[in-house]
Design brief:
By secondary structure, the chain is α+β, with helices and mostly antiparallel strands. It has two domains: about 140 residues, 2-Layer Sandwich (Beta Polymerase, domain 2), CATH 3.30.460; about 100 residues. Helices cover about 65% and strands about 10% of the residues. The protein has a five-stranded mixed beta sheet with strand order 1-2-5-4-3. A hairpin with a 2-residue loop joins strand 4 and strand 5. Helix 6 packs antiparallel against helix 7, helix 6 runs parallel beside helix 8 and helix 7 packs antiparallel against helix 8.
């Protein structure tokens, strides 16, 4: 726990007080100590990802005090059960690279658990989370595609500008609808990407055969052309979607700056 003299029960009782909002200066010191106790686990995970997989992870050794308290208020879990006190993130181009990264992580870290948020998105949020245990500490690795990442940035920006509840299914209906619409677009692109990969596997299977019938040769030529066409279309769609979401983020930034100026002038 936070130190040799702090028990799991004490930490969970601290979580109860955080959830209720009844905290003292001593509680804040204990929470800070608990948060900092994850530093070693975080550094171990980030270093292993860098040295063993050749990937650069970004993140933070400890979740903020406010974020911890808000999570406890949203969810019926104990403080010692929170999986993302420490966390890092990997950003990859698409879902094929995402699947490969997750496979590498689960091979690198024994007993890692995986939560695929693409299967059941949380209020539109899509990603794969890999939870690594280091001693008694848990470290969450978020693996996101570039589209999933900009969607998350849009959600964060909406939360900052309008209402923090937007990230968790609350807030203005039109804003939730915008997030869900973009999430559906990303989900469709992921399905297309998976279908394209299946086609490429069929091409590889045909190419691996020593001899092809006339029908197989015709199929191979058709599939190769189809793969080439779909790759071009996929790249163009990904670029358009990234641009569209980034423009939405920028427009929210303008709204935020205008609001700040209005506050100053008033």
């Amino acid at each position: 726990m936070a130190n040799d003299n702090t028990s799991k029960t004490q930490i969970d009782k601290l979580g109860d007080r955080l959830r209720a909002g009844n905290i003292t200066e001593a509680d804040l010191r204990l929470l800070d100590e608990y948060r900092r106790s994850f530093n070693e686990a975080y550094e171990f995970v980030v270093r292993a990802i860098r040295t063993q997989l050749g990937l650069e992870a970004t993140g933070r050794p400890a979740k903020s005090t406010t974020s911890v308290a808000e999570k406890l208020q949203r969810e019926s879990i104990r403080l010692t059960q929170v999986q993302d006190i420490a966390g890092c993130r990997l950003i990859v181009p698409g879902i094929l690279e995402q699947d490969r990264a997750v496979s590498s992580l689960t091979e690198l870290f024994e007993n890692a658990s995986v939560a695929d948020r693409r299967i059941s998105p949380s209020h539109g949020y899509r990603a794969i989370h890999v939870i690594v245990r280091y001693g008694e500490k848990l470290v969450e690795i978020q693996v996101r595609t570039s589209l999933q990442h900009v969607w998350a940035e849009l959600s964060e920006k909406m939360s900052d500008v309008f209402d923090p509840a937007i990230k968790y299914g609350g807030g203005q209906k039109s804003l939730r609808k915008l997030l869900l619409t973009w999430s559906d677009v990303i989900g469709t692109e992921e399905n297309v990407e998976q279908a394209l990969d299946d086609t490429r596997h069929r091409v590889d299977s045909l190419l691996s055969q020593e001899a092809l019938s006339g029908d197989d040769q015709a199929e191979l030529v058709q599939l190769q052309r189809e793969v080439s066409r779909q790759l071009e279309e996929q790249a163009a769609r990904r670029a358009r979607n990234l641009t569209g979401i980034r423009e939405a983020i920028e427009s929210l930034g303008i709204v935020q700056r205008v609001g700040a100026l209005n506050d100053i002038s008033n």
